[in-house]
Amino acid sequence: MASFALQNVYNNFLTTYAPKSTRYDNHKKDELRNVYVSMLRQTKESPLFLPVSGEDVVEYAVSMKENARDLSNVIASLSNDRTLNLLDKKTAFSTNEDIATAKYIADDDTVDGEELPSFELGVQRLASTQVNMGSFLDDGVMTLDPDTYSFDVHIGDTDYEFQFNVEPGDTNKEMEDKLARLINRSNIGVTASVESDGQGRSALKFESVATGKPGGKESIFTVSDDNTSKRAGAVEYFGLGEVTSAPANAEFTLNGGSHNAYSNSFTIDKAFEITLKGTGEDGETTNIGLKPDVESLISNVNSLVDGYNRFITNAMEATERYGHSNKFRNEMSGIQKVYRNELDAIGLSFNDDGTISIDEKYLRAAAIERDHEETLKPITDFTNEMLLEAKKISLNPMNYTDRVVVEYKNPGHNFANPYITSLYSGMMFSSYM
Q1: Domains of the chain
Q2: Which of 278, 291, 377, 432 could form a disulfide with 295 if both were Cys (CB 3.0 to 4.6 A apart)?
Q3: Cα 419 from chain centroid (whole Å)
Q4: How big is the CA angle at 211 (ends 210 and 216), to the nearest 5 degrees?
Q5: How many other CB atoms are found less than 10 A from the CB of residue 284?
Q6: Which residues, including other chains, have CB under 8 Å from residue 114's CB and lie 6 or more apart?
Q7: When comparing pLDDT for 427 and 20, which is higher?
Q8: How far is the CA of 135 from the CAs of 1, 192, 203, 238, 247, in angstroms?
Q9: What is the dihedral of CA 31, 34, 38, 41, to 10 degrees?
Q10: Angle at Cα 228 formed by Cα 224 and Cα 230, nearest 5°?
Q11: From CA 304, how far away is CA 343, in angstroms rounded?
Q12: DSSP assignment of 291-331
């Protein structure tokens, strides 16, 4: 029971605070060791503080840490893994993003020593999910006998059994809502919703998260209560056993050749990540390729500024809600003063709220007229500064809360304790049983 409760707490944390995980959240052993060493260095001489409490402190610390992680991932996505230079990542283009979008994911602009070609892509069909649409039943009644029922959902190579009770006085709508919550909380690769026909009737709808027909199978999941442990009859009553919309593979052409895929997202030559969006009209296609260096630079700067603006906006709002410390606001104000003039000269200006606006005309002119590295230097310097700031926040978000110092350590005569920040954070536990 305790482990189940802890799992619920952790899942609530992930859905409430954490942004979607990306490939930049995966780290090598030496990167994790560097984080550990940084924690040792940071905490060895840090003073001792009174333990903090209160949901506002916990929310602020977690919010700051996740905002910093998001910014770090944005910066990492703009760097070429092979050169480790900021903002040198090549950028892909799609001439019609209503058909497909493209993202460049390779280390450089060559594959096996040859320059990457462009592609002509046409979409005949998008990959689709499986849907089991239940029967529409009157909302205010229930003709299923009171009892304990169960049904099985088979997906992949796994069977999941769901049990529920029907009590006297329950209605169809109440039970459909209950079953939808039961399915959605289970996270098995099937989502549930309740659809209304606008005439006092509703139906339970099951839909797969995955698309396509992996392994050539005609269905992604099945719903049955033929061999379930409790009373059968719920599947027939709610009408969930039949596939009303079968899954389908995506069908598309690359340079005239026919292809298919289980998903609407896939890679080409390990260099382009393609996401299909629509079929276009009358056989319309889109061209996929790499932007010229200047266009890639401008696109990367736009992505950087978007990530920075999102970070500043979210962090400032969290700081305003917390209302007990101006440390983050003061640090950002200091950084902006240092880089304001240099960035303004190439078309990047700070707004009153700390966000950045871009004048692409000045940025493009600077990129064309100046040496590439000279143009990038103010931006890369500022980006490196923000990366250091993000790492500092990630290591110890509690440093930005209002804490009371108990004791300063004797400099140079202390033992490192990398876990001391957790002692004062209270981010995972509010008490000990």
Answers
A1: 11-86+295-425 (no CATH), 92-127+249-290 (no CATH), 131-238 (2.60.40)
A2: 291
A3: 27
A4: 110
A5: 13
A6: none
A7: 20
A8: 36, 14, 5, 6, 20
A9: 170
A10: 125
A11: 13
A12: PPHHHHHHHHHHHHHHHHHHHHHHHHHHHHHH-S--HHHHH
Q: In this structure, which amino acid lies at residue 430?
A: S
pLDDT of residue 82: 42
pTM of this structure: 0.63
SS3 271: coil
Of the chain, the end-to-end C-alpha distance in Å amounts to: 14
**Worst-scoring range by mean pLDDT, 28-37, 233-242, 265-274?**
28-37
Q: State the DSSP string of 104-167.
A: E-SSSSEETTEEPPPEEEEEEE--B--EEE---EETT---SPSEEEEEEEEETTEEEEEEEEE-
What's residue 17's pLDDT? 47
Residue 361: its H or E element:
helix 360-369
Q: Which two tokens stand for residue 56?
A: 């506002």
Residue 184's CB: how many other CB atoms inside 10 A? 13
Give the tokens for residue 344.
């303004």
Mark residue 350 as left, alpha or beta (left: phi above 0; alpha: psi -120 to 50; beta: remaining): beta
169's CB contacts (< 8 A; 6+ apart) are none
Do the Cβ atoms of 189 and 209 come closer than 8 Å?
Answer: yes
